[in-house]
Amino acid sequence: MARWKQTLIAAIGVTFSITMFIALLSFMAGLNDLLDGLMLNRTPHVRLYNEIKAAENQPIGIFSKNKVQHNFINSIKPSNQLPQIHNSDAIIQALKKDRRVIGIAPKIIAQVFYNVGTTNLTGIINGIEVEEEDKLFLFQNYVVEGNYLELKTISNSIIIGKGAADNMLVNIGDRVQVTTTKGDQVQLKVVGFFQSGISELDKVQSYTSINTAQKLLGESNNYITDIQIKLADVLLAPKIALEYKKLFEVETIDIQTANSQFETGSFVRTLISYAVGIVLLIVAGFGIYNILNMMIFEKMDTIAILKATGFSGKDVKRVFISIALTIGIFGGLLGLLLGFGLSAGIDQIPFKTASLPTIKTYPINYNPIFYIIGGVFSIITTFLAGYFPARKASKVDPVIIIRGK
Amino acid sequence: MSEKKNNLDETKKNFNQNNTVLEAINITKYFHDPIKIQVLNDVEFSLTKGEFASIIGKSGCGKSTLLYILSTMDTDFEGDLKIDGVSMLKKKEAELAKVRNEKIGFVFQFHYLLNEFSVLRNVMLPGEKLGKYSTKEIETKAYEKLKILGIEKEALKKPNQLSGGEKQRVAIARALINEPLIIMGDEPTGNLDKKNGDMVFDIFKELAEVYQQSLLIVTHDNEFANKTHRIIEMEDGKIIKK
């Protein structure tokens, strides 16, 4: 059963579609990971914080608890305090015992002004535990210049957002003056630049160690405004967020709520790439179907004599299905290899963008599941493409063919 | 009437056990397309072991149709067909294929050799399907058959490198590989010149006389038929002379 040229073309069709399928999915998934990582890697799975707001139970309410009366209070104001998490040490201790939590990073968020000459730029200083932050959010990847560990070793140091640094024309080793919301002025030494890829963020964000931030605000060393938590299973985030809210009496937000639009985007992109990949395979399947159909017309004599000499319809069917499957398996395997090669090639293409400092080449995700899906699909489509012509071949009546000669 | 027929069947069956290889009982066939035409009318005959018989008749008398019914390839008929004493009615397609593989060897007007395979492999194919012997044994047997036919030197060539007469001899070797009960031929010399046709006839004769091979050959070549042991003459779907 040799029609090598046609068989080869059919196999190339399968190879091509599997190659494209693998490369497309790997690239798309890599891109998804990149875009999600841009936001999600830097977002804690659960964040504990406090908001400045008026007390839900005003003193008059407690006083009039058992009385039938309505209280009208005008101009309620929140009390004068910073958005601190109370009893943060105890909360951190409790979180460390929770098995579902794999990382905790406390943080202080402080509004400041950067003083540049006579003008002020608004900014946000994040006081962080440097090593914890790096462990959870790969902090060092975003520090584009300077050593991120100096934040801890040098007191009163700051890693400033690249956008802010450009605006203020500061270099590493320079000092910047910041004014806190309370009006205190502090000088901080620039030890590095930070670039997140989101330029709005880079114009305002900067980082100091948690101790520096506490000093800046004139608070004691248990002052913390945020506790960031990374979970073993990100899917549990909404449930755990709710649980902590009740348990610790703080505000909580989970990653899904904070970034719901990212998941939708990833899902749609993945769906599109799967759809394109599968369409390619189906087209290849039709190619095989056509070629086998033609082969049957050409091989009518062979089928007839095989049947006359004692091969049953089943045997004939098996021959044609095995031709199709051979095409599918070899074409598919080659496709998987070429797909891997193509993805590896794309992985080498330089891809530099100012907004993504850590990315040097196009992102590729080498998830084995793509290869498994590609392999299984190539076998299923080629089997189906072979099955129908094979069934036709098995029904060839040898008498008609032989008498016709 | 039916009792009488049963008795007749019994005697025939006993007779079968020794000698009868093929038996056609009241075979009637119609073509339905485009209109219903009767092509075979109550055909009845039997063939004993070692017999070299030919079926002759004018074009369209139904001799080929009869052969295809006898070969089990055509199952759309009335009456009964017994091969080696076993009725072929009610057998499934795969079972009939097995019967053809084991008990019937075919030689057609056209050789139907597969050009992808060597001559040897072409001869071996039905043997491989039978699965009774190892590939090595089948190969030895295939060589034996090719030797009987005097073409063992061409064994490793491709069929399209052979002459017409040689091809037909390969086809005969293929028919012989499973040591069939009967060899059926549909105009096996129809495409051959006088010299090659005679050679094929001599081979058939040798098979019948030396190897006790039963042969049933459809032909319109009266000269060929006259040299066989038995002539079955057909006309308008009926046997007029056994």
Kindly list the characteristics that best describe this protein.
heterodimer, A: 405 residues, alpha+beta, 2 domains, 6-stranded mixed β-barrel, 55% helix, B: 242 residues, alpha/beta, Rossmann fold, 4-stranded antiparallel beta sheet, globular, disordered N terminus
Write a short abstract of this structure.
The complex is a heterodimer of chains A (405) and B (242). Chain A is an alpha+beta fold and 405 residues long.
Characterization of the model:
The complex is a heterodimer of chains A (405) and B (242). Helix content of chain A is 55%, strand content 17%. Chain A is of the alpha+beta class and 405 residues long. Chain A has two domains: 179 residues, no CATH class; 200 residues, no CATH class. In chain A, strands 2-3-8-5-7-6 form a six-stranded mixed barrel, surrounded by four helices. Chain A is elongated and about 105 Å long. The model of chain A has no long low-confidence stretch (mean pLDDT 83). Chain B contains eight helices and ten strands. Chain B has one domain: 3-Layer(aba) Sandwich (Rossmann fold), CATH 3.40.50.300. Classes of the chains: A alpha+beta (405), B alpha/beta (242). Chains A and B meet through helix 13, helix 14 and helix 16 of A and helix 3 and helix 4 of B.
List the total number of helices of chain B: 8
Q: Give the strand order, joined by hyphens, for the main sheet of chain A.
A: 2-3-8-5-7-6
Mean pLDDT of chain B: 84
Percent strand of chain A equals 15-25%
How many structural domains are formed by the residues of chain A?
Answer: 2
Give helix and strand order of chain A, one letter per element, not per position: HEHHEEHHEHEHEEHEHEHEHHHHHH
Q: Sketch the topology of chain B as an H/E string, one letter per element.
A: HEEEHEEHEHHHEHEHEE
CATH-defined fold name of chain B: Rossmann fold
Mean pLDDT of chain A: 83
> What is the top-level CATH class of chain B?
Alpha Beta
Give the overall form of chain A.
elongated
Q: Kindly give the count of domains of chain B.
A: 1
Largest sheet, spatial ordering of strands of chain B: 6-7-8-3-9-10
